[in-house]
TrEMBL record:
Coiled-coil ranges from the UniProt annotation: none
A Pfam match: Peptidase_C26
Entry protein name: gamma-glutamyl-gamma-aminobutyrate hydrolase
Catalyzed chemical reaction(s): 4-(gamma-L-glutamylamino)butanoate + H2O = 4-aminobutanoate + L-glutamate
Biochemical pathway: Amine and polyamine degradation; putrescine degradation; 4-aminobutanoate from putrescine: step 4/4
Keyword tags: Glutamine amidotransferase, Transferase
One cellular component term from this protein's GO annotations in UniProt: cytosol
One GO process term, biological-process aspect: polyamine catabolic process
Species, as recorded: Aquamicrobium aerolatum DSM 21857
Annotated InterPro entries: Class_I_gatase-like (IPR029062), Peptidase_C26 (IPR011697), PuuD-like (IPR044668)
Its EC number(s): 3.5.1.94
Family: Belongs to the peptidase C26 family.
């Protein structure tokens, strides 16, 4: 069987006098080494990305985390300088990509900013600066220059029974990392909560009635996917769904050729 391909979202950033469409190494490495699929970065060209052509080539979609926030005007709130930075090119690419992947049954894994984009793509809203809300924990990274410290595993998450993640995890409480200041507010259409933090923050969701694996997590399984069992399980489950989709497609293509 050919190596399955996974479309990976990109951030638009400026450095070295160039504009880059880029994704952090950890997402690419976890896709290749743990999901066993080849990551293909999709430039954030918005409506100029022909999703039909993309889906003719790939077997899964990975929406990465990023420091930038989804522009609040996309869910009926006001954009402010304090709420930024924003990445409008990414928003205009990922939101249609997520909706189309769900419609067409392409396996989808959405991480951190990704789960927030999944929620907004399906009509939900985001809460911002959640650490300032009474009773809510500080879900931001510990202040450090060391990425291993920032992404350290230190927060419990309770997985709900009878969900997609509930089938992957037993026991039902796992420890995760946490690097975010926004979270799901009003839940998007068709989403069900898969996991919460002890303070009630939504930590994982899935798309009900979806034709394939369609899961978002607020934490970062990519960062420790090669060394942490709970992180690896998510990428392995995604990889299994991607391979299943690739096999189905191969069957359909050979049937059509007969
Ligand atoms: N901007 C959102 C999304 C958070 C996210 O995706 N974080 C990834 C890590 C970014 C970093 O290295 O700081 C939010 O803050 O909720």
């Amino acid at each position: 069987m050919r190596q399955p391909l996974v479309a990976v979202s990109t951030d638009v950033r400026q450095f070295d006098n160039y504009v880059w469409h880029a994704a952090p190494q950890q997402y690419l490495e976890a896709t290749l080494s743990v999901a066993n699929a080849l990551p293909i970065m999709v430039p954030s060209f918005g409506a100029r990305v022909d999703l039909g052509s993309l889906f003719a080539a790939v077997d899964g979609v990975l929406i990465t985390g990023s420091r930038s926030n989804v522009n609040p005007t996309l869910y009926g709130a006001e954009a402010t300088e304090a709420n930024g930075p924003y990445d409008p090119d990414r928003d205009s690419t990922t939101l249609p990509l997520i909706r189309a992947a769900i419609d067409q049954g392409i396996p989808l894994l959405a991480i951190c900013r990704g789960i927030q984009e999944l929620n907004v793509a399906l009509g939900g809203t985001l809460a911002t600066e959640i650490q300032e809300q009474e009773g809510t924990w500080d879900h931001r990274a510990p202040p450090s220059e060391d990425q291993d410290v920032r992404f350290s595993i230190r927060q419990p998450v309770i997985i709900r029974e009878g969900t997609c993640l509930g089938d992957i995890f037993c026991p039902r409480e796992i420890m995760v990392n946490s690097v975010h200041r926004q979270a799901i507010g009003q839940l998007g259409n068709r989403l069900q909560v898969e996991a919460t933090a002890p303070d009630g923050t939504v930590e994982a969701v899935s798309v009900t009635g979806s034709k394939a694996f369609a899961v978002g997590v607020q934490w970062h399984p990519e960062y420790w996917a090669k060394s942490d069992d709970a992180s690896a399980r998510i990428f392995k489950a995604f990889g299994d769904a991607v391979r299943q989709h690739a096999a189905q497609r191969a069957g359909m293509i050979s049937e059509a050729a007969e």
